Automatic annotation (TrEMBL):
The keyword Zinc-finger applies. The keyword Coiled coil applies. GO terms for biological process: endosome organization; intracellular protein transport; organelle fusion; vacuole organization; vesicle docking involved in exocytosis. Keywords: Coiled coil, Metal-binding, Zinc, Zinc-finger. Residues 512-599 form the Pep3/Vps18 RING C-terminal domain. GO terms for cellular component: endosome; HOPS complex. It holds the Pfam family VPS18_RING_C. CHCR repeats lie at residues 236-396. InterPro entries: Clathrin_H-chain/VPS_repeat, Pep3/Vps18_RING_C. It comes from the Eukaryota. One of its GO terms (molecular function) is protein-macromolecule adaptor activity. This is Pep3/Vps18 RING C-terminal domain-containing protein. It comes from Aquilegia coerulea (Rocky mountain columbine).
């Protein structure tokens, strides 16, 4: 009886067949799932492990996922003491893990770090000179370890890794890892401890380094290498010199060679002159360093330099003058003290101190005062007294020097000003020439004063004559001259009491005003015009004066209201004074020719109160009756 053979999926076990034949590559090709591939890798790994090919075995073990656990594989290497093969297995395992296995990646990377450190220590124990041999296995493993740290810096736990490196004493690798993690403070402190200031400064120049770290390590760096540190500061942007003051003060407190360039002074000068720094602390520190130098020329130049000159509403210098004065007094910098006193307008103190240093300096300080003649003379007297009292020559020689000193004052001091400084028993013969010269000067001054008095007398006579001529002024009015306001004749006889109140009547005529331009006005008409056209305040003032005149009821002494030459101002009655005030208020200028008329140009031709009257001027169209027709006119 025939049998049927079913051919279905005959190749499903071919991987096993090839595996038994130890054709591993072909077996992997016929594997259909990860479990089958794990079986192939396991056989290969076990075969290599049995043959003590541990690195090859580690490579195959790292590819196994299911059939053998991670712990079992690692225990095999540990039990055989194959640390290097274990390290290879872990490295290959890391390559096969996905980014989702973060926890496992971190743990394996940390274990690898410890294995690398253990390997390095074992090499050092085996050969003490390994660290000095550039071609040794030691250098190779160091390079491999650093490459591993660089690749794994993002997955390694920072604190754990640094603790491991520190516990194994691997300072260089610790610094390297800190640099990878941008912990620049650790790196810089390491270089400082090693005395490598230049490397530390190179780290600080990196753009990712925070600026605050500059200020933190500045004291140590400037003490380690002042020149390189200052050069680095000068090329660093956004550096605040004020925050570097503690470091600079620490450096300045140390003794320095006489001819050594003071690096802090160099940096502060750079800040002040190049960066135009205005910080008071920076300027004060530079001033204090100048004050401690033997040569005070730099200090004097600094004090005389006006850093704020040309700036609006700003000081000319930025250091504290009181601090500068205390410091210079302490350091015995007397010329600098004189300058500061003068700058603070304490000229007497400046001259007094300058006399202790150099009389020429005192004279220069006394000459600086220009706007106060009395103070200038007082300062020169201080100098004169000092010069006379300090002379050690013969009396006659001292007198000659004193006379010569008078000439230097440009006439500010006279011989009589300095005579009290000489002893009482000095002979007047010694001063004969100077006294005669002084008397001649006084005689010239007296003659000049006489001339000025004569000129003043002539001027007074001219003024009296002018006053007399003004009292006789008059104006000619035609008999038919009309008032500029009401139009009635000025010389018309008559007038109501209302028109003449507060004025003295000119015979039977009403009071009037005549201006140089020829316009004439009745007094009452002029008052009415001014109060109507002027501003409200002026109108109220005029009406108030008129009311006071009416209440007083005094008549003017003269018919035209003027004051005679013989009467003095003190003999004027209250009514006269009020009338003069009224004249000033209404008759200071012609209302038709003065400012009042000019201001009226800007007023509307028709006032708001006259709007109803102005409406009658409107032109309206003619009204035609129904039966009428308009005919065109032909020209």
């Amino acid at each position: 009886m025939p049998r049927l053979v079913s051919v279905h999926d005959e190749g499903r076990d071919m991987w096993q067949v090839y595996l038994d034949l130890k054709e591993f590559h072909t077996a992997l090709v016929h594997c259909r799932d990860p479990f089958q591939r794990d079986q192939v890798y396991l056989v290969q790994a076990d075969a290599a492990f049995s043959a003590k090919q541990y690195f090859r075995a580690a490579s195959f073990y790292s590819k196994i996922t299911y059939v053998l656990s991670f712990e079992e594989i690692t225990l095999r290497f540990i039990s055989n003491g194959e640390q290097d093969a274990l390290r290879t297995f872990l490295l290959r395992k890391l390559d096969n893990l996905t980014t989702d296995d973060k926890c496992q990646i971190t743990m394996i990377s940390t274990w690898l770090t410890e294995l690398y450190l253990d390997k390095i220590n074992r090499l050092l124990l085996e050969d003490d000179t390994a660290s000095k041999n550039q071609n040794s296995e030691y250098r190779s493993i160091i390079q491999e370890f650093r490459a591993f740290l660089s690749d794994s810096k993002d997955v390694l736990d920072e604190e754990t890794t640094m603790r491991l490196l520190e516990s194994y004493g691997r300072v260089d690798e610790l610094v390297y890892f800190a640099s990878l993690k941008e912990h620049y403070e650790i790196v810089i402190h390491h270089y400082i401890q090693q005395g490598e200031a230049k490397k530390a400064l190179e780290v600080l120049q990196k753009p990712t380094v925070p600026i605050d770290l500059q200020y933190k390590v500045a004291p140590d760096l400037i003490m380690l290498d002042a020149y390189e540190t200052v050069e680095s500061w000068m090329v660093t942007n956004n550096l605040n010199p004020r925050r570097l003051i503690p470091a600079m003060m620490r450096y300045s407190s140390e003794p320095h060679a006489k001819n050594e360039t003071h690096e802090v002074i160099k940096y502060l000068e750079f800040c002040v002159h190049r960066l135009l720094n205005e910080d008071t602390g920076v300027h004060n520190l530079l001033l204090s360093l100048y004050a401690k130098q033997e040569d005070d020329s730099a200090l004097l130049r600094f004090l005389q330099c006006k850093f704020g000159k040309g700036r609006t509403n700003g000081p000319e210098f930025f250091y504290d003058p009181k601090y500068a004065l205390r410091l210079c007094l302490k350091e015995k910098r007397m010329r600098a003290c004189v300058h500061i006193y003068s700058m603070m307008f304490m000229h007497e103190e400046a001259v007094a101190l300058a006399l202790q240093v150099d009389p020429e300096l005192a004279m220069a300080e006394a000459d600086k005062v220009e706007d106060d003649e009395d103070l200038r003379k007082k300062l020169w007297l201080m100098v004169a007294k000092h010069v006379i009292e300090q002379e050690k020559g013969t009396k006659r020689e001292n007198i000659r020097k004193a006379i010569a000193f008078l000439k230097e004052t440009d006439g500010l001091l006279k011989i009589e000003d300095i005579l009290p400084f000489f002893p009482d028993f000095a002979l007047i013969d010694d001063f004969k020439e100077a006294i005669c010269s002084s008397l001649e000067d006084y005689n010239k001054q007296i003659e000049q004063l006489k001339q000025e008095m004569n000129d003043a007398t002539h001027g007074a006579d001219n003024i009296r004559n002018d006053i007399s001529s003004l009292a006789q002024r008059y104006a000619v009015i035609e008999h038919d001259e009309g008032c500029g306001v009401c139009g009635r004749k000025i010389l018309t006889v008559g007038g109501t009491s209302q028109m003449t109140r507060g004025y003295t009547a000119v015979g039977p005529m009403a009071p009037f005003y005549v201006f140089p331009c020829g316009h004439a006005f009745h007094a009452q008409c002029l008052i009415a015009h001014i109060t109507r056209c002027g501003d409200q305040t002026q109108a109220e003032y005029i009406l108030d004066l008129q009311k006071q005149l009416t209440l007083l009821g005094n008549e003017m002494r003269d018919s035209n209201g003027t004051i005679t030459e013989e009467e003095s101002i003190t003999s004027m009655t209250p009514a006269d004074k009020l009338r003069l005030q009224l004249d000033d208020a209404i008759a200071s200028e012609c209302p038709f020719c003065g400012d009042l008329m000019i201001r009226e140009i800007s007023l509307p031709f028709v006032l708001p109160a006259e709007a109803e009257y102005a409406s009658t001027w409107d032109i309206t169209a003619p009204q035609f009756l129904g039966g009428q027709k308009s005919l065109p006119i032909v020209i």
